[in-house]
Amino acid sequence: MNFTYYGHSSFAVEIKGKKIVFDPFITHNELAKAVDINKIEADYIFCSHGHADHVADLVGLAKRTNATVVGAFELTEWAGRQGLEKVHPMNTGGKWHFDFGTVKCVVAHHSSGLPDGSYGGNPMGFVFTTEDGNFYFAGDTALTLDMQLIPKYAKLDFAILPIGDNFTMGADDAIVAAGFVDCKRIIGVHYDTFGYIKIDKEKTQQQFSAAGLELLLPAIGSSINL
Known about the structure:
By secondary structure, the chain is α/β, with parallel strands linked by helices. The protein contains 6 helices and 14 strands. The protein has helices at 52-55, 58-65, 73-81, 150-153, 171-180, 201-210, and strands spanning 2-7, 10-15, 18-22, 44-46, 68-72, 87-90, 95-97, 102-107, 124-130, 133-137, 158-162, 185-189, 214-216, 223-225. It has a 7-stranded mixed sheet with strand order 6-5-4-3-2-1-14, covered by helices on one side. The radius of gyration is 16 Å and the shape is globular. It starts with a strand and ends with a strand. 46% of the residues are buried. The mean pLDDT is 98.
């Protein structure tokens, strides 16, 4: 599976020929200024919650690519009010069989308000089960015991976890989360973008390594095969 990182918590995977973008926040991220959003293609856009640093580029990207927007019911309602017609509302605990595989929505402990101040619904994580591989995107979340349910849904090939602390779990809790979800290959997101979430990358990778885990921190704009 090809994974491309766009900075912060924004990334894309390609599964069975479908291009799937997550939490698009690119043009407002100074660290991602080398990424040309006009070259990004998307068949689906999954949004974990409604905060601006996860949906800032949602409307523009969805309109240009004609992608289907997937997220909490309230988030997709908001997307519809922005003129987006292709939406798929979901909510925590639900799953759906898409043309690329199955997605289950799981608990994320965070908050979710939309850019216009309206209610964004429940924040969520996503468990993807596909022929090309299985992964968990935690979204923005604290460490939660609900993560222990993830192995019941899928045997993960990799997990995408926030590691920046302050607004989400930091490295210490992400290491515990990796144990809960039974996955040793972790991609770290939601770090360095703002002053509150800057990390020492070398130290953080050493922490994960000492715990017997592989922490991947791909450069913004780069792609890796998983």
